[in-house]
Amino acid sequence: MKTEICKSEGINKACKLILDGELVAFPTETVYGLGANALDGNAVKKIFIAKERPQDNPLIIHLADFDDIFKVAREVPPIAFTLFEKYCPGPLTMILKKSESVPDEVTAGLDTVGVRFPSHPLAIQLIRGSAPIAAPSANLAKHISPTTASHVYEDLNGRISLIIDGGECSVGIESTIIDLTQTPPVLLRPGVITLEELSEICNAEKYTGTLDVALAPGMKYKHYAPRVPCVMRKTEMLTSEYELAVKNGKNPVIIATQQTIDSLLNRFNTLSLGENGVSAAHYLYSNLHLAESKYDYVILESMPETGVFFSVMNRAKKSSAE
Ligand code: TXA
Ligand code: MG
Known about the structure:
Blueprint: E1 4-6, H1 11-19, E2 24-26, E3 33-37, H2 41-51, E4 60-62, H3 69-72, E5 73-75, H4 78-87, E6 92-98, H5 104-107, E7 112-116, H6 121-128, E8 133-135, H7 149-156, E9 162-164, E10 176-179, E11 186-189, H8 195-202, E12 205-206, E13 230-233, H9 238-247, E14 252-256, H10 258-263, E15 270-272, H11 277-294, E16 297-301, H12 307-319
Parallel strand pairs: 1-9, 2-9, 4-7, 6-10, 11-12, 13-16, 14-15, 14-16
Antiparallel strand pairs: 2-3, 3-8, 4-8, 5-6, 6-7, 10-11
Helix pairs in contact: 1-6, 11-12
The structure holds threonylcarbamoyladenylate (TXA) and magnesium ion.
C-alpha cells in the first residue's frame, strides 16, 4: 500500500476513506491519531492490525459536537456537560457507559467508552465530514506517540493509505483521561489538564488500583519508548551518566529543562524541554523522536512531579528503561 500525505486540501478524500471503512491518520492538538469509522467494527479492526496493537486495549472515540455524545454513550452525567463546557474542544477524554451502537472492537469488550472532542480544525472537519472516529495515537504499538506527520510516516508508511498533515501538535502528550462512571470520578491518565484542576471541579481522584485490571488497559503496557536505550536520572546525576556513556563508546544526549541545560555550559549534546510543564509536554515526544534518529543513548532528566510536570513524568517513565 502506498501511503500518501496531504494537507487540508485532502480532507474530502479523507472523509470518503473513513466512510469507506479505511484508515486515515490525522492531527489533533495532543498527538496524531489513526482513525477509523467508530461505528464500523471491521474498519476499527484494521487499526489494531496497522499498529500491531494488543486487542484488549480499547480506543477513544473522537467527536466534533456535544450532541453526538448520545450516539456513543448511553448515560451522560451532568458532570460530563460541565467538563465539556470548560475544556472542550480540548485535550480531555471522558469515560462513559457505552451505547449499543458502539462495536466491541472499539471498547475491547468493556461496557464503557472513551469520548473526546479534539480541537484541531482538521480533526473537526474530518469528523463532521464522515463519522464519529475511533482513534489511538498513530504510532506502532510501544513506540513514541507522533507529534508530526513525518513521525506518523516513519511508523506507518505502507500500512495506511493517507496521512493528513496539520503541522506540529501543540500540546504534545496524549489527553487527560477521566472516568465518569465512578463516583467520585477517577483520573486514569494525566495530561495537560491536571488532577489538581479536575479535583477542584469534580473531586476527581488519582487511580490507585493495580494496572493489571481492565480499568485503563493501556496503562499496563510499557510504551512511548524510543528505539535506542533511554534512562532517567536526577539532575545532579546527568553529567556522570553522560560521561559513563561516552566512556562506553556511546553518543549520548541529555533531554532536560532549559534551566538545567543552561547550567551544563554547552559541554554536552542536549535537547531542551523548555522552562515549564507545558513546554516540557510539548517537546518531550518530539525530542525523543529526534534523539533516536541522531544519538544512541538517551538520558532524560527526572523532573518534579507537580502540575503538568507530573503528566510529563508519567510518559517519561514509560519511555525509560526503569
Ligand atoms: O490525546 C489522545 O488521547 C490521543 C489522540 C489521538 O486523541 N489518543 C490516544 O489514544 O492517546 P491511545 O489509544 O493511544 O490511548 C488511549 C488510552 C489507552 O490507555 C486505553 O486503554 C484507554 O485510553 N481507554 C480507552 N477506552 C477506555 C475505556 N473505555 N476505559 C478505560 N480506558 C480506556
Ligand atoms: Mg497510544
